[in-house]
Write a structure and sequence with these properties.
The chain crosses the membrane at residues 23-42, 54-74, 86-105, 111-135, 147-170. The protein is mainly alpha-helical and 175 residues long. The chain has helices at 13-19, 21-37, 40-44, 54-72, 84-93, 97-107, 110-134, 141-165. The protein starts with 12 loop residues before the first helix and ends in a 10-residue tail after the last helix.
Length: 175
Amino acid sequence: AEDDPAIPERLSNKQLLMQNMDYALDMFLIYLLTLSIFPGFLAEDLGSHSLGSWYALVLIASYNGSDLIGRYAPLVESIKVTSRRGLLAAVLARYLLLPAFYYAARYGGEAWMIVLVSALGLSNGYLTVCVLTEAPRPYKGPEQNALGNLLVFCLLAGICLGAVLDWLWLIGKGW
């Protein structure tokens, strides 16, 4: 196999990462935002609500339900985002949810928080599936596997840093 010039060599992990840096950044930013809001911020926003002790359960259920719907939404080809720029723009637009959550927690009611949590879950599931299905498309088997592993590494890095940044919501709460 080493002497046969007909067998192309697989791209290195560094080459794959450099060619798909935008997808890697998308995965990192998706989970950085999601884990910096959910579930820690929601657990801290358990003041007096008309739902009482059910409020946290309703928020978690609405997040999980909308995340599930978001993961299946890209099956409809007409609404699937396939553009690299479109995906990056959608991921960056999600960051507008940060001030929305802050103001909803301070001034809004529980209905606004449920809507925002549903939007967070829907966009999380939708964008994750769009990135993970579009990124490996131009490559062959071994490169698809390697790129998938790199994207999952970026996903895990976003989860870890997002969980750490989740503590920032506690600033000013007596810590």
